[in-house]
Amino acid sequence: MICFRGLISRIGMGNKRRSVRFDEHTWMLLKEVSEKMGVNMSVVIRSMVARSLREITDDSGNLILNEKQVQAK
Predict the structure, then answer these.
(1) With a threshold of 0.85, does the pTM exceed it?
(2) Residues 35, 28: contact at Cβ < 8 Å?
(3) What is the rounded CA–CA span in Å between residue 50 and residue 68?
(4) What is residue 7's DSSP assignment?
(5) pLDDT digits (tens, 9 = 90+) for 34-56
(6) Among residues 21, 31, 33, 69, which is most buried (max CB within 10 A)?
């Protein structure tokens, strides 16, 4: 289960509206998750983005990349 409370508000950068494009399949899945959880779709999207960013950063906020990813770019 995804925790939705307090993920983005902790950043303290204020609320800014951004546009993001999704393919139809992804949009349908996001809509289904939001309906089943009983929350707005934007809450689901913000929570998933915050979770993904936490997974690829260390405690200091630095990106965690393996050597292959760094060398490929």
Answers:
(1) no
(2) no
(3) 24
(4) T
(5) 999 999 999 999 999 999 999 99
(6) 33
